[in-house]
Predict the structure of Trehalose 6-phosphate phosphatase.
Amino acid sequence: MGRMALSAVPAPSPRTQAGTAALASLLSDPEHAMLAFDFDGTLSPIVDDPEQAHASERSLQALERIGPCVGKLAVVTGRPVRTALRLGAFAEREGLAHLSILGQYGAERWDAETGVESVPPPPEAVAEVRAALPALIDSLGLTGVRIEDKQRAVVLHTRGLPDPAGAQAILEGPVAELAQEHGLAAEPGRLVVEVRDPSVDKGGALRGLISETGVRTIVFAGDDLGDLPAYEALTAMREGGDVEVLLVAVASDEQTVLVPRADVVVHGPDELADWLERLADALGC
Ligand SMILES: O=P(O)(O)OC[C@H]1O[C@H](O[C@H]2O[C@H](CO)[C@@H](O)[C@H](O)[C@H]2O)[C@H](O)[C@@H](O)[C@@H]1O
């Protein structure tokens, strides 16, 4: 178990053998470990207006402690990198020198080490769908649906409506049909339906970063359906014996899909911040 003493295991401790092994590997060899996080619902509490989201200050402070001890930190998010940088204020934090942000599920990238943003042009089909959405929403008799235009993707938000889950259910079929007509997909999330190119996902994004950095241990924390491909890719890599993996689920009343697949379960971004503070203590950072 290397340097790890049992008293140093951050609570909640992993409930699986694989997770326990990954935590031991992280604590004994942090320089060859990567910690990767989803943004909304994981580092950031969920709010009605996506423009009002912000990263938890306590999580940021814990990551600033952990950052210099580990090989890599990453935020792997559905947000555009520019939005993640604005809402997370990651560029202003001194301890995050090894941070990379993989935005729009891995289509975009920003690295703290260079400050360079890579933002490829969006598929034209997204603008076509964007133009058709207001009429579609009207035809379904829905008012108050918020449209978030991310250029590479368009997100319909029903949070804050009188029946948000009902409105999401009404939207899903017709929006999927419209997306398909344009060679895109409609992906559900926590009270959202997102239209985007489905060929890019967080699993591919993480695989790329793992092979680039050569890390041997990966911790990934997420809360929603968009994090499932990351869970699947990392579980496959773990089963292949390539890397040690610790999967953290940030559970909520809205979404529990990751819970049965996780090694560690916390409830909401506040409990994740608690866990990260304990991890920083355990690492001695
Ligand atoms: O990969 P993520 O970082 O989790 O981003 C996925 C989507 O999250 C955002 O929506 C979620 O957070 C909003 C703000 O708290 C909330 O209002 C919404 O109900 C949640 O689903 C974001 O707005 C999307 O663009 C992201 O794709």
